[in-house]
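Homework help board

Subject: predicted structure for assignment chain

Our instructor gave us this sequence and asked us to write out the predicted structure in token form, then describe one feature. I got the tokens but I'm not sure how to describe them. Can anyone check?
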Amino acid sequence: MTTAVLRRVEQGLVPFHPLRHLGPVADLMTEAFAGELGPWARQTLHRMRRIARWGALGFLLWGIDLDQESPGFVWVEDGRVVGNISFRRAATAGGWMIGNVAVHPQWRGRAIGRALVEAALEDIAARGGVWVGLEVREDNPAARRLYEGLGFETVGASLEMARPAGQPWPDAPSLPLPLRRARAAESHDLYYLAREGLTRTHQEVLEIRPSAYRAGWEARLSAWLEGRNEDWWVLREESGASLSSALRLTSYRSGRWHEVEVLVRPERMEGLGGPLVTAALALLARRPAWETVTALPGVRMRLEPLFADAGFRPLRRLLQMRRMLGTPVQIQPRRHEDPKE
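My token output:
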């Protein structure tokens, strides 16, 4: 339960302040999303708590400027944080992303989530935002109704899957495809391949950006200095042709978990999907048997059965939603339901 008590002068909707609210928000998110947090979210919450324990010194040690504005709001009841919304600028100019909407289970059904989202939309519009994106669980009807009632429209879907830690890697003595390590000059091709099969709007909400698809030794060195081992493997079926598929394996050393990203042209998915997943497992077999996750957006969700056969299980099915700002929206009557995200 969120136990940190705030100053009694705070009540209702309050702008987020990292020094006062970071620890309580971490506790709130743990309560609100119990049982559905992936390794990246767990690592983020651990870092938030560690910074909060040190107070102002913690923000100094981790290079966080307390005077820098941190967009977001909390909802305070009886001196406790029971709701939170965070948002930030998106990778695309004019766009903003809502990171999470969380309401403590004991305070749901009181329209707190709606008040938080409405406050965020008003704040983003005042900052000159053009559109706002977010993700919501497909199986969270209360949250979906809230966002749809506020003018959000679904622009795509994705699936997150996880393979438990300690599960032995399957025997795979050799790679089933003639993969090789990607070169720095192929970074643009990787970025292009990551966007294939996705609408432009879906790409913007997923925040697919060139900087996330850098290959070559400099990119590997940069990743290593940041605490992760990252390798890109590619396949060109014809000399000089564009990439038909690629595979990224990332190991986060401090968090002790792996991430797999499979990129494949939609028209080649049936023939290359299975061998790519097999190749990923074969390459991971050289690494510790840590928890392993993957995200499958859009057409790549067709790879779900192949990952399931490799020991992965669905973690979350998400809908990506977007609302354009500056256009009138017919607001639906309030429902006393609150989303978790």
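Reply (TA_rk): Your tokens look well-formed. For the description, you could write something like this. The chain has a mean pLDDT of 86. That's the kind of observation they're looking for.
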